[in-house]
Amino acid sequence: MKLEARHGVGGIDPHKYSATLAVVNSHGHLVEVASFPVTPAGIEELLEFLTDTELAIDRIGVEGSAALGQPLTVALAAAGYDVREVQPNRTAERRRRRRRAKTDIEDAEAIALETLADPHLPPAGKHATPEAAWEELTAVHDWRDSLVLQRVRQLTEAEAVLVSLPLSIRSQLPSTSRVLPQLEALETFAGQWDGLDAVTRVRLDRLQAALDDIRLLTGRIKALDKRIPPLLEQLSCTLTQICGIGPVTAMDLLVEVGDPCRFATEAQFARWCGSAPIAMSSGEGHGPARRHRLDVGGNRNVNSILHIVHVTQVRCHGPARAYVARKIAENKTKREARRAHKRQLANVIIRHMWKDQARQRTSPGPLPVTG
Fold this sequence. Notes:
Elements (H helix, E strand, L loop, with lengths): L6 E8 L3 E8 L4 E8 L2 H13 L3 E8 L6 H9 L4 E4 L1 H11 L5 H14 L14 H32 L3 H4 L8 H10 L9 H28 L2 H7 L12 H11 L8 H8 L4 E2 L12 E2 L6 H17 L1 H12 L4 H29 L9
Parallel strand pairs: 1-4, 4-5
Antiparallel strand pairs: 1-2, 2-3, 6-7
Helix pairs in contact: 3-4, 5-7, 5-8, 5-9, 5-10, 7-8, 11-14, 12-13, 12-14, 13-14
């Protein structure tokens, strides 16, 4: 009897200069494996290899589809393949569970097997054909994140140096846990302390240099912040109309989510960002689950944004406070009410992004500025 299976899936393990492709059939048996250089010619070879394979490829899983695998993801999507994102922790767990070795071939096969096992993997990449404004916004986002991290590191290191100063100096500084006011006070008192030893002088010079660096970084961050609203306007973004979402938060969402139309339903987006709770219950029989827990497998950056927006709305937004109060009145715990509200926020955000994307595709220019 002939098997119904002349279908299979692919798995790609990308690196900086090469990518390894494994093809498995519908029974999970490895059929073919090959490596290709990550160059225009190498990607053409990979596409020809997929065309010539004896199986009909249903899906292709790519690890790191928005990073090292991004050129491959774009080319595969343009060729009409169904490309999915495979999280690295999934293949690592499979390899650890089976005590397998770690090579490019093993990794590519593990990615293919995960793609075969889960047909509901999220779509790969962020944009099939990214717009210039979105790419510029991504560059601004990455640069700003780098500057913020540098600023945090300067403040953290300065705090350790402040603690090592003599008590005669520390006693004159503001009694606050914040580092910046203490550094500014040190600058005010500069030259008023006599008879300091060489070590203390070096530490004071270091703190003054740190303050100069922090001011420089802060100025650059503020300059980048001014570039965000015009880019949001070019992308027809209305996320800032949601209570608790400002320009920086809207930028973070646009960069993390990418093309919102790659999510077919609200439930798919909620599962991707980890706002859809996972059933964790027992004793309910054939009825619905009574208890749920947090999904820690979703996009943690977007989940963190949802949490911040939730906290802001519960503090100052009437409809959000009423929603949480209603859930608590339904015998939900505060934690369960918070998760329910975050799930609702995920729906609101993806609906806004779908409408913005539709408007962007039909409108020749940015939204008009309203008062």
